C-alpha cells in the first residue's frame, strides 16, 4: 500500500485493465473518465490526450517575442480607441471610480508620510495600480468574495471601507476588529466580503479556489471569487496549485495578476522566462486575457466578462493586468537602489491610471478642474480627520493577545493569560499600559 | 460491489506472510510489534457493529456527509475509495461533487480546504500519508492555524479537518512511517488528535469535524485492518483535549497515544507479572491541547512517569509532557522521568525492529525506574 505502488495500481485499474477484466467490480460513476480505445495504429491513444503523431523531430519553442497582446480601451490621453469597447458607464459611476482612486492616492501619501515620522510602523502604497483595483472591483458584485495579497486597498475603498477603518487597522487601535494583531495594511472586512490579508505570498490562491468551489455548491451559487496576486507571488508553488485545482475542479474563480514589473527589487527577467503570467493560463486549461492595467475601462471590461464566464460556465479565468509599481515596495524599501528615477517618472507622469481616467471623464463632461480642486481639498480634510481620530484611540486590552487563537480560550492559554496579567501588574512601570485598554 | 471484490482479494489479507505465500513468495514475517486488544463496546451510544479502523472512519464520514449538506471529502485518490479504503462507497452515495479526487499537490489540498471551510463548507481533506503533509506545512501553520487570530474572528476555518495516515507499518521506511505530531503541537491554533482504536477513531473524528477549530487527525495506518471493535453505528463524539486512563495502577504512569498505547498496555502487564510493578496507562488521544491535569494527577499518585512515542526523541512531544510534569509534580517524583521514543534518525527500512520503542525497551526503562 505504498504511494508509488498504489499510483501504478490505480492507473491500471482505471485505465486499460478496467476495460476488460475488472469492469464489473467498479461503480459506473468511476468509469466516466476512462476512454475507449480505437483499433487504429496511426492515432495516439494516450489517456487524456487528443493529438496526432508527427514524423519529424521538432521541439515546441516558447512564444515570448510575440506575446499575448494587451487589451486596451483608452489611449494615454483618455480617448476611446474603439467605440464598441466603451462600457458607457453613467457619470455617477465614473465619478465614484475617480474618487475612489484619488482618495486612495491621497490616503497613501498621508500614511506614507506618517510612517516616515514613526507614527505607524509600516506601510505599503498603491501608486500606479489604483486602476486595477477600482476597475476590477467595480465590475464585480459586492457579494463576490475577494482574496487579496496586500496591494489592493482600492478594492476596499470601492466597496465602502471607511477611512477610519483603514487607519484603525494601521494604528492597531481598539477599533481594529483584529485587535491590532497584524502589521499595517493587513485589512479585512467580513461585511464587504474582503478576506483578511496575510503576509505569506500566494497562500490565498488555493484558498480562493476552495472558496469558489464552496460558493458553487452553496445556496447562493450566483457568486464568484476574485483572487489578486503579484507576478512575483505567481512563482510560488501555491500559485501552481491554485490554477490547477481551480481548472480541474471547475471553480468559479477569477485570478487577477498585478504584473507591475518588480517583486521588491527583482525584475520580471529574474522572475520568469515565459510570456508573463498570462502565458501560463492555457497550460492549465484556463481562459486567459492580458489587459492594460493603467486603463481602468479595459480592466473593468475584462473583469466584467470574466465574472460572467466564471459564474455562468463555472470555470476559472485568468486576467494579467500589466502595470508599473510607481512607489517603493514598502516603507522598508528604497527602490532607487535597483531602478532609475527616469523609469519611475515615465509611469508616474506619462502613463498613470488616475491621470488617464481623469482625462477620460473630463472629455465625457463628468468632471472638471474646479471639481477636481475642490475634491482634493475635501478628501484631504476627511483623511486628516480620520487620521487624527485613529491616532488618539487606545490600543486593545493586552488580554487580546490570548483571545481568538481558538474559538474558546483553552485551559493552558487561560493559565498563561493569568500569568501575564499577574506579571504585568507586578512590573507595571516597565510596560506601556497607559496606551492600552485595561486588562 | 467494488468494495466486495477488494476485501475478498487474497492478496489483500491482513497478514502479509499469508498473502505473499499465495503468490509463492516465502518470507520470514516478524510478529507485529504490538497486540491489539479491542475495547469493550460502548453500548451507551446505541447499536454496534464489528468494524475495523478504516471502516469506522468511513462510517464517521458517511454520517457527516449525510447530516451536513455542506460537507466535502477530498484528496488524492479518495474517489475510488482511497488507497486505504477509508472512503469506499462515499462518492457513489453522495456524488462526485462532494467526494472527489484533487490534483496531486498537498499544499493545494490544504489551501483549497481552508478556502472552502472559510466559505462555509465542512471540509475533510485527506493527505495520503502523514509523511507527505510537509508541503502543506505553510498552509497549516501560517494560514489554517492563524486564520481566526489574525482576523479577529472575521474569518476562520474551523470547519476544516485534515486526515492523514501515520506511524510505523512494519516496512514503511522513511516516507511511509513518520509520526509528525510534535511538528504541529508547536503551532497555536491547531488541534492535533490521534486515536488508538476503532471506537475512538470514529468518536474523535466526528468530534474533530464538528469542532470549531482546524484539526489534524492522525490515523495509525497499521491499525486500519488489524484493529477490530464493536463500533456504534450511529453518530457519537468523544471529547477532544481529554486523556483516558485505560488501566489504573499505583507505581508508574505510562503515557502515549496511537499504536503505542497497545505496546504500553502489554508493557503494563509484563511489568506487573515480572516486576510486581502496578502501572497506570494513559492514552493522551489529543496531543494539542493536551490533558495535563489527568497526567499530573496520575503522577502525583504514582511518583513515576514514562512517556513513549514512535517519533524521534529530541523535541518530541514526550519532552513537553516531561517538562510540564517535572514542574507540576516536582515533589511527587521518585525518579527521573523516562522517555522511550524513536531514535533521532530518519525512520529506517530494514532496521525498523531496532528503531521502535518496543515493549522490551519500555520494560527495561520501568525496571530501572523501579530500582532507582
Which parts of chain A are unreliable, with pLDDT below 50 for 5 consecutive residues or more? 1-28
What percentage of the residues of chain B does DSSP assign to strands (E)? Answer: 15-25%
How many DSSP E strands of chain A? 7
Widest beta sheet: strand line-up of chain A: 1-2-3-7-6
Give the helix/strand class of chain B.
Answer: alpha/beta
Derived from helix and strand composition plus strand pairing, the structural class of chain A reads alpha/beta
The run of helices and strands of chain A is: HHHEHHHEHEEEHEHEHHHH
Oligomer: heterodimer
| Protein chains sharing the most extensive interface | A-B, 62 and 70 residues
Integer average pLDDT of chain A:
92
Largest sheet of chain B: 7 strands, mixed
The largest sheet of chain B has its strands arranged as: 3-2-4-5-7-6-12
Helicity range of chain A: 25-40%
Number of helices of chain A: 13
How does this model look, in words?
The complex is a heterodimer of chains A (439) and B (372). Chain A has helices spanning 3-14, 91-116, 130-139, 153-159, 163-171, 204-217, 237-248, 268-271, 296-313, 341-350, 353-363, 369-392, 411-426, and strands spanning 145-147, 225-230, 253-259, 262-263, 266-267, 287-292, 317-322. In chain A, the strands form 2 sheets. A 5-stranded parallel beta sheet of chain A has the order 1-2-3-7-6, with helices on both faces. A two-stranded antiparallel ribbon of chain A has the order 4-5. The radius of gyration of chain A is 26 Å and the shape is globular. Helix content of chain A is 39%, strand content 7%. Chain B is built from 15 helices and 14 strands. In chain B, the strands form 3 sheets. Chain B has a 7-stranded mixed beta sheet with strand order 3-2-4-5-7-6-12. A 5-stranded mixed beta sheet of chain B has the order 9-11-10-13-14, with helices on both faces. Chain B has a two-stranded antiparallel ribbon with strand order 1-8. In chain B, strand 13 (305-312), helix 13 and strand 14 (338-342) form a beta-alpha-beta unit. Residues 1-7 of chain B have low confidence and may be disordered.
Amino acid at each position: 500500500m505504498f504511494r508509488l505502488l498504489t499510483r501504478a495500481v490505480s492507473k491500471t485499474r482505471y485505465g486499460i485493465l478496467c476495460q476488460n477484466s475488472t469492469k464489473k467490480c467498479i461503480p459506473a460513476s468511476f468509469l466516466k473518465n476512462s476512454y475507449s480505445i480505437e483499433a487504429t495504429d496511426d492515432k495516439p491513444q494516450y489517456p487524456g490526450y487528443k493529438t496526432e503523431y508527427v514524423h519529424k523531430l521538432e521541439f515546441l519553442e516558447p512564444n515570448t517575442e510575440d506575446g499575448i497582446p494587451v487589451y486596451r480601451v483608452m489611449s494615454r490621453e483618455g480617448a476611446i480607441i474603439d467605440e464598441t469597447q466603451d462600457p458607457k458607464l453613467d457619470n455617477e459611476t465614473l465619478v465614484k471610480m475617480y474618487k475612489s482612486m484619488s482618495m486612495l492616492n491621497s490616503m497613501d501619501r498621508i500614511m506614507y508620510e506618517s510612517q516616515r515620522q514613526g507614527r505607524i510602523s509600516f506601510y505599503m502604497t498603491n501608486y500606479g495600480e489604483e486602476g486595477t483595483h477600482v476597475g476590477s472591483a467595480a465590475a464585480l458584485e459586492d457579494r463576490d468574495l475577494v482574496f487579496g495579497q496586500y496591494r489592493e486597498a482600492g478594492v476596499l475603498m470601492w466597496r465602502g471601507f471607511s477611512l477610519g477603518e483603514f487607519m484603525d487597522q494601521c494604528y492597531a487601535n481598539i477599533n481594529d476588529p483584529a485587535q491590532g494583531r497584524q502589521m499595517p495594511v493587513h485589512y479585512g472586512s467580513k461585511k464587504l466580503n474582503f478576506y483578511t490579508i496575510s503576509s505569506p505570498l500566494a497562500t490565498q490562491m488555493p484558498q480562493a479556489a476552495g472558496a469558489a468551489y464552496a460558493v458553487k455548491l452553496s445556496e447562493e451559487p450566483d457568486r464568484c471569487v476574485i483572487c489578486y496576486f503579484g507576478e512575483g507571488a505567481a512563482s510560488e508553488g501555491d500559485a501552481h496549485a491554485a490554477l490547477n485545482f481551480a481548472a480541474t475542479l471547475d471553480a468559479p474563480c477569477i485570478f487577477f495578476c498585478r504584473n507591475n514589473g518588480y517583486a521588491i527589487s527583482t525584475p520580471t527577467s529574474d522572475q520568469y522566462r515565459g510570456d508573463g503570467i498570462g502565458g501560463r493560463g492555457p497550460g492549465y486549461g484556463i481562459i486567459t486575457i492580458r489587459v492594460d492595467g493603467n486603463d481602468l475601462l479595459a480592466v473593468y471590461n475584462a473583469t466584467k466578462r470574466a465574472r460572467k464566464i466564471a459564474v455562468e460556465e463555472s470555470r476559472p479565468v485568468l486576467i494579467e493586468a500589466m502595470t508599473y509599481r510607481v512607489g517603493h515596495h514598502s516603507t522598508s524599501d528604497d527602490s532607487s537602489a535597483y531602478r532609475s528615477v527616469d523609469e519611475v517618472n515615465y509611469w508616474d507622469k506619462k502613463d498613470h491610471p488616475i491621470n488617464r481616467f481623469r482625462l477620460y471623464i473630463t472629455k465625457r463632461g463628468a468632471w472638471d478642474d474646479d471639481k477636481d480642486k475642490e475634491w482634493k481639498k475635501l478628501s484631504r480634510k476627511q483623511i486628516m480627520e480620520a487620521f487624527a481620530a485613529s491616532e488618539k484611540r487606545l490600543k486593545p486590552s493586552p488580554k487580546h493577545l490570548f483571545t481568538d487563537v481558538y474559538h474558546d480560550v483553552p485551559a493552558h492559554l487561560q493559565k498563561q493569560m493569568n500569568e501575564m496579567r499577574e506579571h504585568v501588574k507586578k512590573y507595571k512601570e516597565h510596560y506601556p499600559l497607559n496606551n492600552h485598554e485595561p486588562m | 460491489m467494488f468494495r466486495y471484490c477488494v476485501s475478498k482479494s487474497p492478496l489483500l489479507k491482513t497478514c502479509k506472510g499469508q498473502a505473499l505465500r499465495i503468490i509463492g513468495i516465502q518470507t520470514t514475517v516478524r510478529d507485529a510489534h504490538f497486540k491489539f486488544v479491542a475495547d469493550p463496546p460502548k453500548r451507551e451510544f446505541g447499536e454496534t457493529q464489528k468494524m475495523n479502523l478504516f471502516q469506522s472512519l468511513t462510517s464517521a464520514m458517511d454520517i457527516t456527509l449525510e447530516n451536513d449538506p455542506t460537507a466535502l471529502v477530498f484528496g488524492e485518490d479518495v474517489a475510488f475509495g482511497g488507497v486505504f479504503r477509508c472512503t469506499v462507497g462515499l462518492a457513489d452515495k453522495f456524488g462526485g461533487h462532494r467526494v472527489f479526487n484533487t490534483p496531486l499537490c498537498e499544499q493545494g489540498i490544504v489551501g483549497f480546504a481552508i478556502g472552502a471551510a472559510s466559505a462555509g463548507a465542512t471540509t475533510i481533506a485527506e493527505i495520503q500519508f502523514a509523511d507527505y503533509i510537509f508541503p502543506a506545512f505553510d498552509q497549516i501553520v501560517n494560514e489554517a492555524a492563524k486564520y481566526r487570530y489574525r482576523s479577529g474572528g472575521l474569518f476562520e476555518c474551523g470547519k476544516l479537518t485534515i486526515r492523514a495516515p501515520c506511524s510505523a507499518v512494519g516496512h514503511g521506511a522513511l516516507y511511509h512511517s513518520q509520526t509528525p505530531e510534535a511538528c504541529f503541537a508547536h503551532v497555536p491554533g491547531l488541534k492535533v488528535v490521534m486515536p488508538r482504536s476503532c471506537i475512538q477513531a470514529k468518536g474523535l473524528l466526528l468530534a474533530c469535524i464538528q469542532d470549531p477549530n482546524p484539526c489534524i487527525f492522525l490515523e495509525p495506518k497499521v491499525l486500519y485492518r488489524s484493529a477490530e471493535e464493536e463500533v456504534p453505528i450511529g453518530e457519537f463524539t468523544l471529547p477532544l483535549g481529554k486523556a483516558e486512563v485505560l488501566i489504573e495502577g499505583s507505581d508508574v504512569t505510562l503515557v502515549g497515544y496511537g499504536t503505542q498505547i497497545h505496546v504500553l498496555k502489554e508493557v503494563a502487564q509484563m511489568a506487573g507479572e515480572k516486576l510486581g510493578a502496578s502501572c497506570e496507562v494513559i492514552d493522551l488521544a489529543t496531543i494539542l491541547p493536551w490533558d495535563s491535569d489527568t497526567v499530573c494527577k496520575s503522577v502525583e499518585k504514582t511518583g513515576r512517569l514514562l512517556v513513549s512515542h514512535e517519533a524521534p526523541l529530541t523535541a518530541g512531544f514526550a519532552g513537553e509532557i516531561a517538562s510540564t510534569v517535572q514542574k507540576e509534580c516536582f515533589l511527587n517524583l521518585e525518579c527521573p522521568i523516562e522517555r522511550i521514543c524513536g531514535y533521532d534518525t530518519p525512520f529506517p527500512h530494514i532496521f525498523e525492529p531496532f528503531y521502535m520503542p518496543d515493549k522490551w525497551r519500555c520494560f527495561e526503562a520501568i525496571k530501572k525506574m523501579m530500582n532507582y
